[in-house]
Amino acid sequence: MLLCPAAIDMKQILVYADSLSWGIVPGTRQRLPFDARWPGVMENTLRVRGVAARVFENCLNGRRTAWDDPFKPGRNGIVGIEQVIEMHSPLDLVIVMLGTNDFQTVHENTAWHSAEGMGALIDSIRCAPIEPGMPVPPALIVVPPAIRVPDGPVMPKFLGSEGRCVGLAEAYGDIARSHGCMIFDAGTVTTTSHRDGIHLDADQHVVLGQAMADIVQVALQPLHSEESSLVGAEDIRRR
């Protein structure tokens, strides 16, 4: 049997996220196809550049960083994350893009609370019961774009969230520094939809996916120092 060299060096990437990455079409309950969602755009862009990458999507509508949804079970991001890491190992990178649902009206969270939840998630990723000899995957925190004034069917459960999420990028930055992991602020390249104030329009999935390909291509390169383990969007774009 012939083996493709690219397949031998296949980079395996997990995207652990919520409906912004699941690809919900704003104002509807429909879903964009894989190639139109930002994880798919990222995978395809990397492959065009010669980077053999396989993206595993684990994106659940309503997922929080570390809180339960009183109306829907299984939305606490910490619950089961260790088994997800175990399932897909060995992994070269884990991308975590969560936080938007932390600001639903059933919670009284600020940016600080959401950041603490993200920190707990990173800790859980590093405690996953992976097989002996397999590497603990590095984590890349992606700050979701800021919530606009919510509108449409999602409005009641996100009422006032545009104010509670203020400062999220800065709070996540503190967690990235304290945990020694990479971070990228999606809000530097994309914005949430005018249709519902929460999710991404199709064109923004393309923009984010292409930007994430830039980020991930650098993140997959061997790190040569502890300082290089914390990578910001501007740092990557200067390389």
List the main descriptive attributes of the protein structure presented here.
globular; 239 residues
Protein described:
By secondary structure, the chain is an alpha/beta fold. Helices cover 36% and strands 12% of the residues. It contains ten helices and five strands; from the N terminus they run H-E-H-H-E-H-E-H-E-H-H-H-E-H-H. It has a five-stranded parallel β-sheet, with helices on both faces. Helix 3 (38-48) crosses helix 9 (202-219) and helix 5 runs parallel beside helix 8. The longest helix is centred in the C-terminal third of the chain and has 18 residues, at 202-219.
- How do the strands of the widest beta sheet line up side by side? 2-1-3-4-5
| Average pLDDT level | 92
Describe the global form: globular
Task: Work out the number of β strands.
Answer: 5
Task: Tell me what portion of residues adopts beta-strand conformation.
Answer: 5-15%
User: What about the largest sheet?
Assistant: 5 strands, parallel
Structural class designation: alpha/beta
Order of helices and strands: HEHHEHEHEHHHEHH
What helical percentage do the residues reach? 25-40%
Distance between the termini: 39 Å
Low-confidence stretches: 224-239
Q: Please count the helical segments.
A: 10
* Structural Rg: 17 Å
Question: Quick summary of this structure?
Answer:
With 239 residues, the protein is an alpha/beta fold. It is built from ten helices and five strands.
SSE map:
Layout: H1 5-8, E1 11-17, H2 19-22, H3 38-48, E2 53-59, H4 81-88, E3 93-97, H5 111-126, E4 139-143, H6 155-158, H7 161-164, H8 168-179, E5 182-185, H9 202-219, H10 233-238
Parallel strand pairs: 1-2, 1-3, 3-4, 4-5
Helix pairs in contact: 3-9, 5-8
